[in-house]
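Readers of this paper often ask what the protein records in our data store actually look like. This encoding replaces a full spatial description with a residue-level series of whole-number codes. For reference, a complete record is included directly beneath this paragraph.
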Amino acid sequence: MTETGTAASSAATSLPEPVRQRVLALAAHALGQLPASDIPAPLRRFASFAPAKRAKLSASVLGPILETDDHFRRLAAFQVRREHPELGDAVAEGVPVPAADPVEVAALAYLLRPDDWEQHVAAAAQVPVESPRADEEAVSRLSDQLDQARTEARQVRERLREQVNELKAENVTLRRKLNEARQRISSLHSDLELRTTEAETADERVDAARAEVERELRKLRARITELEAVDYAARRTAGQEREMASTRTRLLLDTLLEAASGLRRELALPPGGDLRPADTVAGTEPEAAPMGRTAPDDDPALFDELLALPQVHLIIDGYNVTKTAWPNSPLHSQRQRLVTALGALVAQRRIEVTVVFDGAELSGPVQLNPPRGVRVRFSPAGVIADEVIRQLVRAEPQGRPIVVVSTDREVAESTIKLGARSLSATSLISRIARA
């Protein structure tokens, strides 16, 4: 163990009892907020307990781990600082807080470990222990609170008793209504049997009527056959007349065309070309307007236009976006919020999406549930996420539209050289917020 670690362990062992109890209470509360992968194995069985039970049962195990496991202590300190932001920031930055409880300050200092944390612990050791008189006053105050609680409990019991009486009366009413409903159901059954008998008689009448209709239908079909024969003969005669008229018209048109061709040859008229009379007027022609859109990279309209391209592939620099949008959230929360929002975007646009996170940020296996259509990749050991993004761009065929979302200038410039379009992280964040 190093000298610093020895000093920290010695100081932790000599913590004043109020400070030690407060440290264990804060760490036990933080234990329930941490992911299972960040909790040491001896403490995992306590994580699901209620806060008070967790603090009581895990004290014998939690204290030694806080003294020896700096990584776990820092994780617990991060959660405690989130729960007590104002006092935690003041202690971490060495800002004096005269009105704060010295025991609370010493407990936070022990977990956060600023440069002057040992002074805070020493100051807490100087706080006098409450006198027996204060204990008697506390006991008296608690007794008053107990009497008040008993009075409130008695009132609650009376209200519950009244509610039980009301429920009994309502139960009697419901039973009466149930009997009435059963009588109505019995009457409806009788009515149903009567109507079933009438329906069977009606079915016999329907069968007779159907037979009569079929006879009439056969007569109508025979009549339709006769009329179709007459109509065919009439259409054949009309078709012959139309064919004769068409032949006459075609003969007349051929005559006119031959006459016009002969007249052109006789007058020696040149064939029509591309030159028009307006082309002979002199003037300066305008230059062609530049093609494409010249909008800033964070323009939401430009982002929507790029997503509308056919077969577009959206590649996202994960932590570059999440640390811009939610800088104060834990990394696992940032990752899940991003992929969930991208799932909604994929459902709207039907596009291919790949999110790349830096694997160097991980301390163990990742628990992440990406929605359908969102591909998630972590860079392998020794490789940064920027290189994985460039590999993804190189893997695509030339001509496919690729959009890379990253505020990193180096990533943007390198992917543009490879043929991709680069957009800033704020454009994607604005699009997600608008969705």
Remarks:
- The first strand starts at residue 313 and ends at 317.
- Residues 319 and 339 are 12 Å apart (CA to CA).
- Confidence is low (pLDDT under 50) at residues 1-13, 273-295.
- The beta strands are 313-317, 352-357, 374-378, 402-405, 421-423.
